[in-house]
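[step 3/7] fold_predict: job queued, chain A
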Amino acid sequence: MSRSMTAALALVALALAGCSTDRSVDKKDVANEISGKLADQVGRKPEKVECPDNLPARKDATLTCTLTDQGSSYDVHVTVTSVDGDHTKFDIKVDDNPKN
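[step 4/7] structure written:
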């Protein structure tokens, strides 16, 4: 992944509706939001973003997803900043260095 992609996603606030009764945001929705925000910032989506679990709709809850692009994988750290009814806001930070 290029440095501009990493910088563009260094710290981005996202908002999603968490609609399940267990008050979490589906892992696929989190991954899609990360991909979409990257596309907005740098003009294209990464090859793949995967999250291992749903994101609990609870302030300060965390989740680590994996972003894969151009043969390298990066951890994406997701932290819930606020929950207002069915809306969960969270920040993301992409590691500067690839995992592999």
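[step 5/7] annotate
The chain is about 20% helix and 40% strand.
Residues 4 and 68 are 15 Å apart (CA to CA).
exit 0
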